[in-house]
Each structure stands twice: as structure tokens, then as C-alpha cells.
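Fill in residues.
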């Protein structure tokens, strides 16, 4: 079969590789009809995530048709249409029983890579390095789905791939990011990052009743998409994020802050001017990551910082004293996808949510290597890329 494989930093290739086979009795094999490139894939593309090996198959956002089921899988049958959450969960361990699916205790059969700082606690993830189980991903014609009697979401007829594909990751990720803010009707919510995750976090915050949402980015198309949904937008390249947020909130700071950027904030060149005025140490002004630091400074006391953005390794130069003294609550993690899928699927069926608006590019799987670059560089107004094997 054809699959997008990692060959090193900024080197994704469309290779011919062996078809997957059933390896455990609960497995299923899915023929992929649509898959997508995620901001999290860019961390692998950029070489930020340890534990990748040459030839690893990429991709954790995919859906398709079941073509084979293992003998112990009583839930799926050949021909079923499924979206497969990126967090692989067994459904039976202590964490799965609590609904903490993204930290399933059984699905991550990782190698011991000795990287304590990256965190070994996640569930197995598709296409996401040997730190998270080394499971081949779904940017491919076929994929083996472990624990396929638990993880996949069955899709009713009548919904298009585009309507449901994002149930596997970015829709529940934006949703969880907003839910864990415990949004109140008087809340002003600030969201850093207007990529696909930020777009869904914005719409989720509005659906959950936020009074006002402010979205921060520098990409004009992404800011325009956020503004069209009703957000106030800040271009962090041309404006001081902290000053604008203080202005908008009459000096109080946003009640809730959501980081939909993650590791990319390491690469951002923006420095805000707040620290000068507050006569903070120069090192606080110049060191990374910007987003977490801005959130800790600007969030209103007793507010919530919700961090779906992916981080790894050691982060320093965070004003943790501000977070502590303001009594901030920090909530973060890979998304417990299966916790949200039933509800979100119902909302899609009811026409309350249509996630397809983020798709700007639909291409063949073979175009994947070029599309990684287009998505990373935000060329051609790119917000979300969907790839279709056989297009
Ligand atoms: P993306 O790369 O398309 O979007 C990130 C956006 O952040 C870009 O538009 C970029 O311009 C903007 N940005 C960069 N630096 C910024 C700064 N200093 N201030 C404000 N905006 C800034 O990625 P995405 O697909 O939207 O994903 C966003 C994040 O969510 C990534 O870190 C991804 O790994 C993570 N993610 C987490 C989960 C989870 O389960 N927790 C799931 C999916 C994605
Ligand atoms: Zn993802
Ligand atoms: Zn489990």
C-alpha cells in the first residue's frame, strides 16, 4: 500500500510499504477514505518529538471502512464506516473506566527511551513516535486499529467524511479545551492560535456561552475565519497582545485563556512590551515559550489556563509565581477523545456543528509530502488539509 512515511526532519515521503495485518484478536483493519494533517504532525515534521524512526507511518486523523476484523471483535463488522480517535484506548483499565482515555494504561506499549521530560504517560497514539507506542498511522491506504472494539466511532449513513472526520481529534480537542475552562456567561475567553484547533476552541467557547472570545494569531486568513465566527482578533505581529487584552478587559485580564499553539510558540519571534513597563527581568522578556508566559501574566486572578497545545521537554522562564499568586487553574493533556464523541456526533447530526468549514485543501495521499510544507508555512491560505487515498 501507499503511506506517508517519516524519513527525518522536514522529510516526509509517500512510500510503498507492506499492508497491515490483524495482530491481536480485538484488532480491525480500516481502509482509509479520508485523513488529515494536524498541527501535532508538524511537531514530528519539525523534529521536535523524540522516538521517531525512519520509515514510521504518519497520521492520527483518519476515517474509513472496516475491511477485516479480529476474531474477538464483536462490535465491528466488515463494511462499517468508522472515525478512529487518535488516542488508542482499551476501555477496561482504571483510567479508561474513569473516562481518562488519553492516559489509557494499556495501549502505550512504548519502548523505554529514557526521556522523562517528554512524558510517558499518554495512551498509545497513532503515527506519533515510539514514545507513544510506535503505532503506524493513518496517512495511508490501510491502517491496523488496535482495541478496535472500543476506540472507533461508528458513523451513521448520510454524513459526509468532511462532516465527521475531525471527530477523531481536533473537534473534541477544541471542545475539551473550552469545556475545561468551565465557561460562565460573563466570561471573556482569550485563545492563542487560530489554526484548526483554535477555530474549534473558539466555536466551542461560544456554544458553551462565553460572553466574548478574543483570538490571537498572525496569519490573516486564520484571523479572518475567527472574526467571521464572532471573535475579536489580535495580530500578535503588529500589536501588543497583553496591552490589547488588558484594554478589552478593562485591565482585569481574560477570565479564561486557551493555548492552541503549543511547541510552535518556541519559534515565534514576537516579544510583548509588557515586561519593560513592569520592569521585569530582561530574560523573562526574551525567552520562550511566549504563549504560556503571556497567559500567566494576563489571565485574571482565579482564572483558568487550558492548554491543548502540545509540549515536550523542559520549559523554563515561566512566571509561575504569577500563576501561583493569582490562584490560576491549569488544565492540559492529550484529548480524551472518546469522552466527547457521542455528544459531538449528535450535535453534527442535528446540524448544530459542521466542522467541514476549516478544510481549505483536499488532495490525493500522494500530494501529502508537498502539503506538509504548505500547511506548515500557511501558504495558499491553508488552514486544514484533507488527503484522500485514490483521489
Ligand atoms: P497549527 O500549527 O495549524 O496552528 C497553530 C497556530 O498558532 C498557527 O496559526 C500559528 O500562526 C499560531 N501561533 C504561533 N505562534 C503564536 C503565538 N506566539 N501567539 C499566537 N498564535 C501563535 O496547529 P493546530 O492543528 O491548530 O494545533 C494547535 C496545537 O494543538 C498544536 O500544538 C497541536 O499539537 C495541538 N493539538 C493538541 C491536541 C491534544 O490532544 N491536546 C490535539 C490536536 C492538536
Ligand atoms: Zn492531531
Ligand atoms: Zn485503558
Amino acid at each position: 500500500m501507499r503511506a506517508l512515511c517519516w524519513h527525518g526532519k522536514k522529510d516526509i515521503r509517500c512510500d510503498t510499504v507492506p499492508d497491515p495485518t490483524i495482530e491481536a484478536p480485538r484488532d480491525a483493519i480500516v481502509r482509509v477514505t479520508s485523513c488529515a494533517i494536524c498541527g501535532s504532525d508538524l511537531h514530528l515534521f519539525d523534529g521536535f518529538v523524540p522516538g521517531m524512526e525512519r520509515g514510521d507511518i504518519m497520521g492520527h486523523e483518519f476515517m474509513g471502512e472496516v475491511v477485516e476484523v479480529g476474531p474477538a471483535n464483536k462490535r465491528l463488522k466488515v463494511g462499517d464506516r468508522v472515525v478512529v480517535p487518535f488516542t488508542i484506548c482499551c476501555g477496561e483499565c482504571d483510567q479508561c473506566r474513569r473516562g481518562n482515555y488519553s492516559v489509557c494504561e494499556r495501549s502505550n506499549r512504548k519502548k523505554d527511551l529514557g526521556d522523562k521530560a517528554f512524558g510517558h504517560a499518554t495512551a498509545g497514539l497513532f503515527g506519533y513516535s515510539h514514545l507513544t507506542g510506535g503505532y503506524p498511522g493513518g496517512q495511508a491506504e490501510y491502517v491496523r486499529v488496535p482495541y478496535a472494539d472500543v476506540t472507533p466511532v461508528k458513523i451513521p449513513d448520510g454524513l459526509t467524511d468532511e462532516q465527521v472526520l475531525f471527530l477523531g481529534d481536533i473537534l473534541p480537542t477544541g471542545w475539551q479545551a473550552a469545556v475545561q475552562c468551565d465557561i460562565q456567561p460573563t466570561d471573556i475567553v482569550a485563545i492563542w492560535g487560530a489554526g484548526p484547533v483554535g477555530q474549534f476552541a473558539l466555536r466551542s467557547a461560544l456554544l458553551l456561552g462565553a460572553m466574548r472570545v478574543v483570538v490571537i494569531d498572525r496569519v490573516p486568513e486564520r484571523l479572518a475565519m475567527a472574526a467571521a465566527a464572532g471573535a475579536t482578533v489580535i495580530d500578535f505581529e503588529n500589536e501588543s497582545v497583553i496591552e490589547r487584552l488588558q484594554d478589552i478587559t478593562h485591565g482585569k485580564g481574560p477570565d479564561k485563556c486557551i493555548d492552541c499553539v503549543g511547541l510552535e510558540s518556541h519559534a515565534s519571534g514576537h516579544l510583548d512590551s509588557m515586561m519593560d513597563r513592569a520592569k521585569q527581568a530582561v530574560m523573562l522578556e526574551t525567552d520562550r515559550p511566549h504563549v504560556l508566559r503571556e497567559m500567566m501574566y494576563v489571565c485574571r486572578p482565579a482564572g483558568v489556563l487550558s492548554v491543548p497545545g502540545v509540549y515536550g521537554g523542559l520549559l523554563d522562564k515561566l512566571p509561575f509565581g504569577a500563576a501561583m499568586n493569582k490562584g490560576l487553574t491549569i488544565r492540559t493533556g492529550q484529548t480524551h477523545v472518546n469522552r466527547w464523541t457521542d455528544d459531538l456526533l449528535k450535535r453534527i447530526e442535528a446540524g448544530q456543528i459542521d466542522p467541514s468549514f476549516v478544510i481549505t485543501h483536499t488532495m490525493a495521499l500522494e500530494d501529502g509530502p508537498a502539503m506538509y510544507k504548505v500547511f506548515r508555512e500557511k501558504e495558499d491560505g491553508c488552514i486544514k488539509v484533507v488527503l484522500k487515498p485514490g483521489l
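Residues 171-332 form a domain with the Rossmann fold fold (CATH 3.40.50.720).
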